[in-house]
Every structure is written in C-alpha cells, then in structure tokens.
Amino acid sequence: MNLKEFYAGEAFDAHRYFGAHIEEEGVLFRTYAPGALGIEVIGEFNDWQGTRMYREGSGGIYSVWIPNAHAGQMYKYKIYKKGAVQDHCDPYGFGMEKRPGSASVIVDLSEYCFGDGEWMAARKVDYNAPLSIYELHLGSFRTRQGKETAWYRYEELADVLIPYLKENYYNYVEFMPLCEHPLDASWGYQNTGFFSPTSRYGTAAGLKELVDRCHRAGIGVILDFVPVHFAVDAYGLANYDGTALYEYPHTDVGVSEWGSHNFMHSRGEVRSFLQSSAAYWLEEYHFDGLRMDAVSRIIYWQGDPARGVNNSAVNFIKFMNRGLRQRFPGILLMAEDSTDYPGVTGPVDEGGLGFDYKWDMGWMNDTLDYFKKTPKQRTENYHKLTFSMMYFYNERYLLPLSHDEVVHGKATIVQKMYGEYEDKFPQARAFYLYMYVHPGKKLNFMGNEIAQLREWDESREQDWGLAAYPIHAAFHRFMMDLNRLYLEEDAFYAGEYEPGQFEWLDCHEEEKRLYAIRRRGSRHDLTAVFNFSDQDETEYVLPWNENSAWFPLLDSSWEIYGGGTRKSTKRICPEQGPEGGRLKLSLPAYSGALYRTEKMD
C-alpha cells in the first residue's frame, strides 16, 4: 500500500498493510490510531497480556511483530486514550469470534484455493443478459432440522442452496450483509468487522467455498455492502483512538436514523478503509458484485434532499465505483436508492455515480399500492402501473421485491394483494407476470416464490412446509415456470434499456382494468395481457394487423397453477374485420397471460 494514497483517500489495498498478516514464524500486527496515547496487542499468543505496539514515525500507525502467533488465534488491541482504556477488535481483521465475543481472529487467507477460473475469465457486464436474483438471508433460508439459530456453515449451505437456485431458475444470488455484526436483528447492516465474514456461519475458507461452488454451477454471487454507517459498540470503530476517527464528531450528522454512526466520507483514511473493504470482498472472495445499501444517505445529508447534497460522500462513491470497475472488470455495482438524483447509473466520466443498476423503488411502491386497492379503486389508480415507463429510461433499473417489503408489519407479497385468502393467490400470480414483463432486471426475496404468508423473521427458517398445501405448491410451480421462461426468452431482457423494445398495446382500459404489453426479441416477440379486475372479460378485443399468430406460453389462470382454466397450447390467430385485424381473448378475473408471437406463412 502507498501511504500517500491511504491518507489521500485513494487506496484500495489498505487491508494488505493493516490488520494481522501471517509471516514466517509469526504475525505482523498493524493498526491506524493517530489519537491513541499508546496501544498493546493482547491475545491467545501472549495469554492476553499486553505486548506493546510501536508507533511508526508520526503518521499514527502502530505495529508489532509477534513470534509464534498463528492462524486461528484470537486477539484485540488495547488502546489507551485520554482518561480511558478500551479493548477493540481489529478494524482490518480478517475474522472475528462469534457474538457475544468481540475478539478478532488471525486468518490465513491463502487456506482455500478457488477452482472457478473459467467463470472468472468469462465474467462481464452485459445489460442485454438476463439477471434474475434470489435475495437471501443466510441464517434464515434454511436451518438444521428447522431449529432456530441452528445455522448451516457456509460450505454446508452450498449443498442445499445451489440445487434450489438451479431448480428455480435463478442465475444470481444476493447475500444480505455477511460482514461481522453483533446483533442478529440488524441483519448485518450495522457492522463491526468490515473485513470479517460473520462467524455465525463458519470461516473465511467456508465462505470462499460457497462462492466457488456457486460459480462452478453457473450462478453469480452478489454481496450486500454497507458503506454508510457502522455499529456503535465500544469494541468496534466508534471512538476508536479516543477521537471521532471514522465517524463525524457532531451528532446532528454523525448519528443515523438507525442509531448507528455515519462514516465521515470527507476523511481520506475513511475513504481508503471503505474502498479497501469493497475491493477485499471482490478480490479475496470472488464476489461478482456489490449491492450498496442506503445510497440516498450518501447522496444527501441524512438522506434528506432538503439538507442538500453531501458532495464529499458523492465524490467518494464516484471514485470508489470507478476504481472498483478498473480493478475488477465484469463486476456488477447496484444502488439501493429511493431518490430522484440524476445519473446514478451514468458513467463517472460523464458526471454519473457509476452504478450498473438502480433499484426502482418507485415501481415497487406504486405497483404494490395498486394491488392493495379494491377493484373499484384500481380504476382511478389505473395509471400507477403505467407511470414507471414515463421515467424508466432515465436509469438502468432493477425491479426489487426485497426483504424490506416483507417485514415490520408490511405483510408478505401475497398478503398485500387485495381481498380474502382465495383472491390473493390469483392476483399474486398475475402481479408477478406483470413484474417480469415490465422492463428491468429482477430481484426476489426468499419465500416470495412459495407465497409465504408469514412476515420474514431472521430467527426462523422459511416456511418450507407450505409445499404440502396444493395452492402453495401450484404457486411455486408458476414462479418456477415464469423464471424459466425469463431465462429462455430474450424478449424479456435484450435491449430492455432501449425505448423500442417495449410497447403498450393497450393502456387505456381504465374501467375494465385491462392492460396489454409487447416486448420485442431477436427471434420473436412476447405479448402479455392482464385483467386486474374481479370480473371475467370474455371478449377482450385487441387490434392486431400483423400476419402473426399468438402461442400461449404461460397463463396465471391455468389449473396447474391453482386457477380454473385448463392449460392450452392452441395458437390464436387474428380475425379480419371492417376496421382491420383483431384478436379476441378471454381473460378471467385477476389473471395474466403470456404469448409468443410468430409470423404466419
């Protein structure tokens, strides 16, 4: 690492310099604490008795070499401050003990050898490729025999997770934050170990094996990354050297809405810390991308546009995104951002923030709100479903149905649908077909695919027993078939960020609540028609002057999915009338149907 770059906020490799590094017959410990009065390293190698660390020059760096220290041993830094002494975990530590313990662990990062060279060599950013992401909380996806906190280890989860992703036709998985964190209920969003994979699920080598095996199965892996704030625990980054080293010194901007400390992105050392953390996960663990949390809190002070743009933080995210892309070609960078700040997915060199995709929170809120409404209310709210296409081409959007939508009294996706129990399932099937026909990459949180009725709880595994109930099994089959078609039919995704690929065939049936959408593909087009009312539409007439037939691919009302219509693969041909060609379609209440359109001889 170049020290000048570190202080200037330009380093991406600070983890190679700071932390605990194994050398021949010992370990070199190094930490940055310019405000400390003195530091000792304590650990299993010295019976937790302090070994003095020496200040390197006047730059605030302390180091010491400990003979006979080795991988697997725990340690802390005892930092002497004005009027206080506090034991801290290592900010650059590569491992930590399981909570409630707070010691860092010496880790041999060369222990695991990857076998995913073919995947890594072929990896690239392709906006015209399918991207179907399964968002996962590793501790509550599945547990051993369904027991609470009986977690699988990283490498063990591969045996369970990878076949499930393949069977359900997801080509990417996104792990919620895996950095070490003290509180299970924070879901990993308030961290103490920005270079330490959480010990809840095993070791660094185990996590590397999980990512490696996903790659060898053809599945990309995205990590949720938190560059905005950190946990307030005294053993972590807070008041690390007796001063506000990582955080703001003033609480009005230094404390987040979650009660955590906000990073002070104007400090070069903080920028280098975060940039190096991001690079570390991409380099050491071969993650294929990062989903960055709470980007609105980087753009605006405390996430509030009325407070103005935080220019230091914006410059930080631009510099980091550009640097990561230069160092790791082919990675995906995603922004969880609910603001209308322009250019989130624009190139940094053109003034943008440099992300590949932005979560479309507007689409999510409008669409879910529409489906909560009564059929009568949907008439006056008809264009909640058309509004998203008014701004869609401003950014490269991803359509998220994430963990945030199924917790804290918000209800699960199926529960959000209007009406009684029996009406929720057909609406949810039609809703998901609409989601997949709408342009934008896709993200679904675990449990959505089985129509989970219980809000997500990080302490319990998903309700996999729902598969025994026919209505849930049928819903799951629908989601599997929808995901399969999404990967197979390039009309779903190729050119989706270009205006000519999408067309409203009908978006003016306010009273009947009918919609028709066309998506253009390289081989053939797809068309989808929807009836979001509670009344059957037996003769829906759609103008169609092309010499092409419609072949049914998927219908949410088919019996195999829990509906009342027998599956049919019979093609539908346009009729010629006095005003030209037209198609006559029958649409049951709360349904959607997908067709492949092919030219007739």
Protein model, in words:
It is a single chain. With 601 residues, the protein is of the alpha/beta class. It is built from 14 helices and 29 strands. Strands 10-11-14-17-18-19-20-21 form an 8-stranded parallel beta barrel, surrounded by 4 helices. Strands 3, 4, 7, 8 and 9 form a 5-stranded antiparallel β-sheet that branches.
State the helix count: 14
Q: Tell the overall outline.
A: elongated
CA radius of gyration is 26 Å
Beta-strand proportion? 15-25%
Largest sheet: 8 strands, parallel, barrel
Distance between the termini: 67 Å
Assembly classification: single chain
Task: Give the helix/strand class.
Answer: alpha/beta
**Order of strands side by side in the largest beta sheet?**
10-11-14-17-18-19-20-21
Spans of at least 5 consecutive residues whose pLDDT stays below 50 are none
Summarize the structure.
The protein is an alpha/beta fold and 601 residues long. Helix content is 24%, strand content 25%.
Write the layout of secondary structure elements.
Blueprint: H1 3-8, E1 19-23, E2 26-32, E3 38-43, E4 51-52, E5 54-56, E6 61-67, E7 74-81, E8 84-88, E9 104-105, H2 117-122, E10 132-136, H3 154-167, E11 172-175, E12 179-180, E13 193-197, H4 204-216, E14 220-225, E15 229-230, H5 251-254, E16 261-262, H6 268-284, E17 289-292, H7 296-299, H8 311-327, E18 332-335, E19 357-359, H9 361-372, H10 375-380, H11 388-391, E20 397-401, H12 413-416, H13 421-437, E21 441-445, H14 470-488, E22 502-509, E23 514-519, E24 525-531, E25 537-543, E26 548-555, E27 575-577, E28 580-587, E29 591-599
